[in-house]
Amino acid sequence: MLLSISDTHFKIDLDLWERIWAFYFNADLHIPLAHIVRASTEEPSSDWREVRMPGTAIPGVIKAGTYYTSRGKEFWYVTRGSNYLTLELKDEFYQKIVLTIEQNQTWADQLNERLAI
User: I need a surface site. Which of 70, 74, 84, 94 has the fewest CB within 10 A?
Assistant: First the structure.
């Protein structure tokens, strides 16, 4: 997974295997910065009432794909570890995007700095 920030967008480019696990074959996720409400590194809430469609879930190993929750539609690509980057969105297909990535705090700080401008 490659992440980048331009003047106007936050870009999430999934590699082939990440697309397969998430059953996500659309264009990469390019979110306008104006549509990001906040970025955090807190562990996101998750419960048994979520409906995965489509995606992959192996408890303790991977949670990837589109999930329908009481909070709205969410995209998850989470693997072992606790380096969460959670994006709360407005006016987007997904209400939330949850990733596990290295340097999650750095990415959250960079995004929140851009949102404060």
Answer: 70
pLDDT band at 117 (very low <50, low <70, confident <90, very high): low
Percent residues over pLDDT 70 in the chain: 98
pLDDT at 93 exceeding the cut of 70: yes
Phi-psi region of 75 (alpha: psi -120 to 50; beta: other; left: phi over 0): beta
**Model confidence pTM above 0.85:** yes
Nearest to 72 by CA among 86, 93, 55: 93
Number of domains in the chain: 1
Q: Which segments within 45-93 are labelled E, that is strand?
A: 51-58, 62-69, 72-79, 84-89
Which CATH number characterizes residue 89's domain?
2.30.29
- Could you give the strand order of the β-sheet that contains 9-13, starting from the edge strand earlier in sequence? 2-5, 9-13, 29-32
31: pLDDT strictly greater than 70 = yes
Domain hosting 64: range is: 2-116
In the chain, % helix, strand, coil (3-state, to 5) comes to 20, 45, 35
